[in-house]
Amino acid sequence: LSPGAKMGCFTFIKVMMILFNLTIFLGGGTLLGVGIWVTTDGDSFLDIFGTLSSSVVQVVNVGYFLIVIGAILLIIGFLGCYGAQRESKCLLMMFFSVVLIIFIAEVAAAVVALVYTGLAETLLSAVMTPVLKEKYGVDQRFTEIWNVTMTKVHCCGLSNYTDFNNTHWLETYGTYPEPCCKPSLAPCNATLAAQSQVPGCFDQILEEIKTNAGVVGGVAAGIAALEIASMAVSMYLYCRLDQK
């Protein structure tokens, strides 16, 4: 290519890099804002989006998760956008390094999730089951969230009905939550819950993921492709700056 064509190609890629990372920066700012909103004013968030859609907000504190993800996207977007605009080799290399670290972490997490699914279930049960035992039947909003989740997902507890053993609910009412038994079986005692064999919510979530494995895999592949493309573009700009 002629010097003019090379310069035009460089300028085009630079502009695309700026626009792409500006989008990431704005997206990160949005997620950060939502995360702060959920963390500081969760009640208004629940009122707007409803109980069912906010179940994860109570079970897993998604507010802090959104803050972390938003902050990371803000950093990536700033490094990529400002680095390309200022043609800063330092910022471009930092952008490349951050995206590479995230890419490696995602690959490692995917491998661990595939190989150690049982371990993940054990760890999650060890963390969440005590919370479920402590709050179910005591915290009204927490109880309502779990009831709606179990009814909609057709599951019981995290692993099964035994997660509700020694809970305030069982000690007070002498029964297990209604979703732990088949609809025709009431009141839901230990015998009927065992006969119903309602799966735990963790198993149901895994089943949903497996059912939609194609969609999940496609999204993961798309994200990985964007990350690889971003690293390639940043390295191209980095190398081209030496030739300017």
TrEMBL record:
<dbReference type="InterPro" id="IPR008952">
    <property type="entry name" value="Tetraspanin_EC2_sf"/>
</dbReference>
<keyword id="KW-0458">Lysosome</keyword>
<keyword id="KW-0325">Glycoprotein</keyword>
<keyword id="KW-0472">Membrane</keyword>
<comment type="subunit">
    <text>Interacts with SLC19A2. Interacts with NTRK1/TRKA.</text>
</comment>
<feature type="transmembrane region" description="Helical">
    <location>
        <begin position="58"/>
        <end position="79"/>
    </location>
</feature>
<feature type="transmembrane region" description="Helical">
    <location>
        <begin position="91"/>
        <end position="116"/>
    </location>
</feature>
<comment type="similarity">
    <text>Belongs to the tetraspanin (TM4SF) family.</text>
</comment>
<feature type="transmembrane region" description="Helical">
    <location>
        <begin position="215"/>
        <end position="239"/>
    </location>
</feature>
<keyword id="KW-1133">Transmembrane helix</keyword>
<dbReference type="InterPro" id="IPR000301">
    <property type="entry name" value="Tetraspanin_animals"/>
</dbReference>
<protein>
    <recommendedName>
        <fullName>Tetraspanin</fullName>
    </recommendedName>
</protein>
<dbReference type="Pfam" id="PF00335">
    <property type="entry name" value="Tetraspanin"/>
</dbReference>
<dbReference type="InterPro" id="IPR018499">
    <property type="entry name" value="Tetraspanin/Peripherin"/>
</dbReference>
<dbReference type="InterPro" id="IPR018503">
    <property type="entry name" value="Tetraspanin_CS"/>
</dbReference>
<comment type="function">
    <text>Structural component of specialized membrane microdomains known as tetraspanin-enriched microdomains (TERMs), which act as platforms for receptor clustering and signaling. Participates thereby in diverse biological functions such as cell signal transduction, adhesion, migration and protein trafficking. Regulates neuronal differentiation in response to NGF by facilitating NGF-mediated activation of NTRK1/TRKA receptor tyrosine kinase and subsequent downstream signaling pathways. Plays a role in the inhibition of TNFalpha-induced apoptosis.</text>
</comment>
<keyword id="KW-0812">Transmembrane</keyword>
<feature type="transmembrane region" description="Helical">
    <location>
        <begin position="12"/>
        <end position="38"/>
    </location>
</feature>
<dbReference type="GO" id="GO:0005886">
    <property type="term" value="C:plasma membrane"/>
</dbReference>
<dbReference type="GO" id="GO:0005765">
    <property type="term" value="C:lysosomal membrane"/>
</dbReference>
